Amino acid sequence: MIKVNSEKLFQKAHKLFPGGVNSPVRAFKSVGGTPLFITKGDGCKIWDADGNEFIDFCCSWGPLILGHNNQPIRNAIVEAVDNGTTFGTPTVQENTLGDLILSNHRFIERIRFVSSGTEAAMSALRLARGVTGRNKVIKFDGCYHGHVDALLVKAGSGLATLGTSTSAGVPASFAQETIVLPLNNKDAVRKAISDYKNDIACIAIEPIPANNGLLIQGNEFLQFLREICTENGILLFFDEVISGFRMGFEGAAGYYNIQPDLIAFGKIIGGGMPVGAYASSEKVMNHVSPAGPVYQAGTLSGNPVAMAAGAAALKECLKPNFYSKLEAKTSQFIDSILSFSKSKNYQFNIHQMGSIFWLAFSDKIAIRKSSEIDPESMSYFTVLHRELLNRGIYLGPSGFEVGFISEAHTEKDLLKAAEAFKEALDITFKTVKKD
Question: Which of 93, 99, 128, 407 meets the CB 3.0–4.6 Å disulfide criterion with 304?
Fold first, then answer.
């Protein structure tokens, strides 16, 4: 694969941006080599600056559920831009998208648009504290909620532990307002609530954790969180930046039929444009300014171009059998690869939820905690990623990241990709064994 232009662009980028990128995982540090500079996307394919073509399973980290350059979304964007790009005022497009979401989502009554998933999580956290008058938050190891200071933390030692910062610039005092627990551990939750009961504002969780592997939780654990939150006056916060409108129109809340108190959404509600949102009941959202005392604002919140793109995208998602068809072709693609892998006795599995999948170099049927992921297995992913790129397949450049299938992935595309996976797996297991 030729990467001459990407290499030149990356050298130039190092003189402009920290590490040559504007988001860390793009730097290819986990897999080695030069990141690809993508110049075009259409359907399920992307092209880099050297003209190399790839079937894309990153889909801009999930929001492109309809694929790249989707015509209804593109048309909506062009029409909106013809009338201007931003006004800093209320717009018709905000009403249209807001009504579309709330009319088709049983678990929320009011929504506030923001500009990113991180901003949505940050705002939901502030709202939880404002509603409850409490300070501390419970989060789970292996769940990511954007680069929010209070949530950019890892666990210390012990069953229920105050967080320690995972980033320079996050004061210890901020991190220590967060209690970090292992996933799928009821005893840890009970102990944390016993120790800090009167000062816990919310329990934050990705109901389908998909930022550190695909750590699928059982309905029982999530239902337990719902019940213990209700018993103790704690708000349950579902971070659905990835799972929202991806698992189904009602996301994980609908899939598990569990009512959270707060939900955060990401760029899928903007058709891939920079947008996010947080939502809740009318009672809780009436605490948000200007209706209530919890302040949150944003000049580009409800941007008309993003709102128009989002409405176009979500109307497509509401078409009959949209999600069942997407899940079916994802399962067929995965089953083909797994059948091959099992015939070779490779220690390899693909975990799936709807149209989300994760490659695990492990024979475990279920991996529910980040501690159950073998760090050494990432050496396999490094080789696999390189071999897939050489065969025209693009995955996010980290073995801890998940992949996505869009409506634009055709049967022909997926058959081609499955064959590439099989060839790449053969080379991966031969190479890593030799090393």
Answer: 93
